[in-house]
Amino acid sequence: MPDPAEWWRQAVVYQIYPRSFADSNGDGIGDLPGITSRVEYLRQLGVDAVWLSPFYPSALADGGYDVDDYRDVDPKIGTLAQFDEMVTALKAAGIRLIVDIVPNHTSNRHEWFRAALAAAPGSPERDRYVFRRGEGPNGERPPSDWTAQFGGSAWEPVGDGQWYLHMFAPEQPDLNWENREVRDDFLKTLAFWADRGVDGFRVDVANALVKDLTPPLPSQAELDADDLPDGVHRLLDRDEVHDIYKEWRELFDRYDPPRTAVAEAWVRSAHRRARYASPDGLGQAFNFDLLLAEWDATEFRKVIEENLALAASAATSSTWVFSNHDVVRHATRYALPTGIDLKAWLMGDGATPPPDVERGLRRARAATLLALALPGSTYLYQGEELGLPEVADLPREALQDPTWIRSGHTEKGRDGCRVPLPWTSSGPSFGFGTGPAHLPQPAGFAELSVERQEADDTSTLALYRRALAQRRRLQTAEGLEWAADTRDDVVEFRRPGGWTCITNFGDAPAPLPRGRVVLSSAPLSGGTLPGDTTAWLEPTD
Ligand code: GLC
Ligand code: CA
pTM, whole model, 2 decimals? Predict the structure, then answer.
C-alpha cells in the first residue's frame, strides 16, 4: 500500500479551466456547479486529482490570474458554499483537488492595491507593491525600459510621479515579497484553502516573486543578456525565493496528509527547476520539456532521462505535460511542420500551412500513452482527452487574452486552447451550457463531443479511459529500464513488474517486443507497431 502522503508522486492530474468546462446556468461562463455536475465524468475518466485554474473574484483581465480576493469565489462562477459542495463531490469520487495560487501579483482591484493608490508615495500601503519614482523632473518617464510579458511597458504611472511594476498586464501589479505582511497574508490564504479540504496548490510563476531592484535598474537589454543558465538573474529565479517556499512547506507539513504543491517555473535549466521541487520546498515542479520537444525519439529519450535523474536527485517525482491553458494544444502542434512559428501561424487563422489533423491526433494519442507509462505524474488539460484541436480562427472580436490588445493586435494569445468543451453534438454550445459560450466553438466540435466519443470504442476519450484504468493497475515503483538495441526512431522502456511501453516515432513499422498487448494508441497490424503509435505490453506468464 503506497504511503497516502505520497499520493501525488504518480498521480494523473486533470486541469480544469473553470470558465470553459461546464456552464450550469446558461450565462455562457463555466462555473463551480458545472464542475460538480461533471464529477461522474471525471471519475469515469479515472483521474486522481483535479487542478483548478483561478476561480477567485476577478475582472478577468488575464483569465482570472488577476485576483481581487484570494479567499473567496468569483460570484460569476459560484459561491464558497458551492466550492465546498464541489470538494465534497470530488472527495466522494476519490478525486483530490489542487487549486491555483497566484502570488506574484494581485489584481488592480484587490483592496491592497486600492489602498496603495489612495495612499502617499513611501507609505506602508505602497510598500506591499513595487512602486518607484519615474525618471525625469516630474517622474514622467518610466523607471526603466522593461517590457511586460504581454507587451508594452512593465511600469504604469499613477499620476504623482510614481510608477508600479507589472510583469504581466497593467491590471496585475507585482507584489513586494520583501514585505512581511505579504508573506503572512499568503500563509493565511494557503491555510484557508487547506482547511477547506484542498489537497495541494499549483503555484503561478513561482520563480518570479523575489526581485533585485537595487538601483540603478538594469536595462531590458542587460536583463536579456543575463542568460547564463546558472547566473543570478535580477528579476527571475533568484535563490532567495526558496526561503518563501520553505515557510510554505512548514505550513503544508502541519496537515495530514501534508499538502502538496507544484511550481510553475519556466526556468532556464532543468537543473534550476529541481530546486523548486525539493522536499523542503514546493515538492514538485512542472517539467515543460516534453511540451517543448519536437516529435522525435532522440529528443524524447533525452528529456525523459534527464528529468528522471533530476527528480531523483531532488527526492521528488517528475511531471509530464503536453498541453495547458497557455500553449497551443498538442494535437495541433503535432499536426504542423517541425519548427513552425506558432504565433505567426495563429495570426494567419491557422490556414497556412493547414494542419494535418489526422497525423496530429495520431501523434498526440501516441505521446499521451508514452507519458502515462512514465514514472511520475502526468498533467492533462481539459479537452485533450477528446483530442480537441487549437481553435486557430476565433473571430478577432471574440479574443479575450490581454496579449491581443497589449501586442497591438500582432499576437493573438491563448484563447484558442480555452474554447469551452463540447459535451453533446448539438445545442447552442454543444452541451457546455444552455446558451452560447463565452468563446465561440467551431462546428467541428460536434463530432468531438463527449456524447459522440462515449459511443465510439475507438475514440480518443475511450483510449484515455482505458489508459488511465490500465495505468492504475500496472503502475508500481517509480523505476524505468531502457530496452537495449532499439531503432533510433523508437523509444522503448520497461517498468517494474514487467510492463513495457514502446513508441514508434518513425514511418516504418517496428517489431513489437514480447508480451501481451494491453493497449495501443492506434490499431496494430501483422504483429508490428505502425508509425506514430504507442503500445503497452505486459508479460504473458
Ligand atoms: C502563468 C499562467 C498564465 C498567466 C500568468 C500570469 O504563466 O499560467 O495563464 O497569464 O501566469 O499570472
Ligand atoms: Ca455559468
Answer: 0.97
